[in-house]
Sequence to fold (110 residues):
Amino acid sequence: MPPDGLCPGVSDESDPPTESGPTPPGISLRAGFALSELDLAQLWIASLTLGGTLSQAELEAALRGELSLSGHEHDVVAQAINDYFTERGQNHPVAYSVEIEERSHRRHPG
Fold:
């Protein structure tokens, strides 16, 4: 994770949603949310249930890429979105903060 504790992957659109075929692993929160049938209120409640502390407005700002999340908050939202997919027998497509960090290190070693 970056030294400031913020997770840069929230607005990463390097893995855009697709209309067909399996969802690629490691997509952004925004892409995972777009692929789900969740509305903002449902995602917010699911995140709170998992221990998240974001307000609904903060969650919306994070999904728009206007607010960076801590690794913990990113992971809570990712888990909420991934739960939606796994409850339907699908893969868990949204990347967790450690996966984003590893991807960043591979792209920018050193």
In short: Residues 24-107 form one domain. DSSP finds five helices and two strands in the chain. The first helix runs from residue 29 to 35.
